[in-house]
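Standup notes, structure subgroup. Blocker cleared on the S-adenosylmethionine input:
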Amino acid sequence: MIHTHDCPMPGANLDIQRMPGHWLLARLGKRVLRPGGLELTQKMLDGLNIRSQDRVVEVAPGMGATAALTLAKQPASYVAIDRDEAAVAQVRRILTGISQQAVLGQAHETGLKDGEASVFYGEAMLTMQPDPMKRRIIAEAFRCLESGGRYGIHELSLSPNDLSETIKQAVQKDLSASIHVGARPLTVGEWSALLTEQGFVVESVAEAPMHLLETGRFVRDEGLAGTLRFLWNVLRNRHALARVLDMRAVFRRHMAHMGAIAIVVRKP
Ligand SMILES: C[S@@+](CC[C@H](N)C(=O)[O-])C[C@H]1O[C@@H](n2cnc3c(N)ncnc32)[C@H](O)[C@@H]1O
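Run returned:
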């Protein structure tokens, strides 16, 4: 098993050629696993406007990169829920105090009480769910939030809004084959509709290019040392290198129609 500071890495026991793309990148040292990078995360966080009185829930924190930004805002409480045990362990490493928790669980069944949260968010996790599960997770966010509470998402998007079904299916098929996870991105209009159908009111929408594996974004997200560490790791393993190059080729092939979106909505 691969460990960081004695903590198991997600996907550490999986075969490199088959493991989900986000765990492969994490295993190679990448910490920021969402399509719009830290810049779009920052826009989502600006929209969520987390303050000291907030009770924050993060679903699917992964390696905990956004968790660290949220905890720096010193909210009244913070709960992270991920379905991967190693991801939960990674987030636990940065928690302090009894008002901060990371638990194993499912985003559509958090076990939280109605109206318990004032802020709820999740990044790079709805895209990988089939549409009915996307709806269940958004409905769960709505249930857990108090009236006036804010919900933020940061996901893969497609454009334009009237993109043909043929191209949508081609993107979905190529992406899923490359990252080894079913990926079902939506257009900006479809993401907004999914949120408003569940009762939310849209507050802000921000977009960014899908540059997860492009050099400029990589360095901005991971820093120079993190980027060099990633390169060192990937160049030493030809199977990992082949997979990363394939993912980047697919992202580039569909660059014209693929982007990243962050939406912040409010429960009335
Ligand atoms: C692509 S990673 C994104 C991690 C992190 N949010 C980021 O943007 O860097 C997807 C994460 O979602 C988690 N996940 C996926 N579906 C989930 C679900 N239904 N409930 C809880 N966690 C989920 C995975 O375990 C993983 O940690």
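Discussed briefly. The two ends are 46 Å apart (CA to CA).
Next: hand off to the docking folks.
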